[in-house]
Amino acid sequence: MADQYAQAGEGKRPTEIPVIRWEEPPEGPVLVLLDQTRLPSEEVELVCTDASALVEAIRSLAVRGAPLLGIAGAYGVALAAARGFDVDEAATALAGARPTAVNLAVGVGRARSAYAAALARGDARRQAAAAALAAARQLHREDAEASARMAGHGLALLDELLPGGGHRVLTHCNSGSLVSGGEGTAFAVALAAHRAGRLRRLWVDETRPLLQGSRLTAYEAARSGMAYTLLTDNAAGSLFAAGEVDAVLIGADRIAADGSVANKVGSYPLAVLARYHHVPFIVVAPVTTVDPQTADGASIEVEQRPGFEVTEVTAPQVQPAGAGGGIPVAPLGTQAYNPAFDVTPPELVTAIVTEEGVVSPVTAEALARLCAGSREAAMD
Ligand SMILES: CSC[C@@H](O)[C@@H](O)C(=O)COP(=O)(O)O
């Protein structure tokens, strides 16, 4: 089956411009983002001069994906501080821009605490702003390191679970370098397998309604030179039934204390399919995505997105037609159910791979031990 699919790409960098960067032109500091809503057609930068522009970029998914949201949130606080805005107000707006990915609140909290601690020890506002920026840069570096370590642990796990090699991996949404300071979470594992010569194929779910799979993951896969194939989300069942999937690799937006995993809507059905077909369902996420304050899956707030994302197809090239500015694909006035995420219970998750190691089987106790170990290491 594999031979009929075309292989694209020749090992290029994932994008020509960085996904996020801080700059200090003479007019004042700015946060420059790769506008992910414009991919794959074009790589366009979005320049944020204040936190409210960043809040809008987060809501519109110009910047997205749990780890990157954390990094962006931290830089957003630094931006507000550097430009003399009310830092608490900016931090509250940023942390609330999207509710499900816990990394956003974690990143905002890290920079805000650094700012507050600097003021508390008597630093001037300018120095406190520098402390917030240092915290954002630190988080950015840590995420890159975590990403490399997750890739190593994840590949070792794949090799252990699938000793025959030639892995055929299915992924959903986008979890590569577009969501990270490094090469990402789940996608980074697939990339490590590709580089080690052990990835036979990456199956890429298109990920309706906003197409993070086809627009972003396929983009990254093509540029990496790996063998990949795009499928509609509803084709996954027949792919499993045909015996073409050896493992599922996905990221996470929030992992509750009991091991329930919130990720892009469509992840839970894949977990059910994987269980039925005896295929490992592996979640790859940094420890910052584990939220000990959220007890279980039912306590995770799932972001509800506007219905027009389902009732219209949008693209930068099309002229406004419906409420969201896209081409209607449903009768005008149709109501849509559009949760951005779903929650997979821990019993359907084979393993959670973090930079600190692998949790399998997934239990509240094992997760708590992992998080406690990571906190201790951070304090050393
Ligand atoms: C490390 S990526 C994990 C998740 O953030 C990713 O799978 C995802 O669901 C992103 O959703 P998005 O709505 O595009 O921000």
TrEMBL record:
Enzyme Commission (EC) number: 5.3.1.23
GO biological process terms held by the UniProt record: L-methionine salvage from methylthioadenosine
EC class of the enzyme, as a word: isomerase
GO molecular function: S-methyl-5-thioribose-1-phosphate isomerase activity
Binding, substrate: R64, G65, A66, R98, Q212, N263, K264
Catalytic activity: 5-(methylsulfanyl)-alpha-D-ribose 1-phosphate = 5-(methylsulfanyl)-D-ribulose 1-phosphate
Pathway(s) annotated for this protein in UniProt: Amino-acid biosynthesis; L-methionine biosynthesis via salvage pathway; L-methionine from S-methyl-5-thio-alpha-D-ribose 1-phosphate: step 1/6
Site, as annotated: Transition state stabilizer: C173
Active site: D253 (proton donor)
Keyword Calcium attached: no
Keywords annotated in UniProt: Amino-acid biosynthesis, Isomerase, Methionine biosynthesis
InterPro entries: IF-2B-related, IF-M1Pi, IF_2B-like_C, Initiation_fac_2B_a/b/d, M1Pi_N, NagB/RpiA_transferase-like
Coiled-coil blocks: none
Highest rank taxon of the organism: Bacteria
Matches recorded under HAMAP family: Salvage_MtnA (MF_01678)
Family of the protein in this entry: Belongs to the EIF-2B alpha/beta/delta subunits family. MtnA subfamily.
Physiological role: Catalyzes the interconversion of methylthioribose-1-phosphate (MTR-1-P) into methylthioribulose-1-phosphate (MTRu-1-P).
UniProt-recorded name of the protein: Methylthioribose-1-phosphate isomerase
Gene behind the chain: mtnA
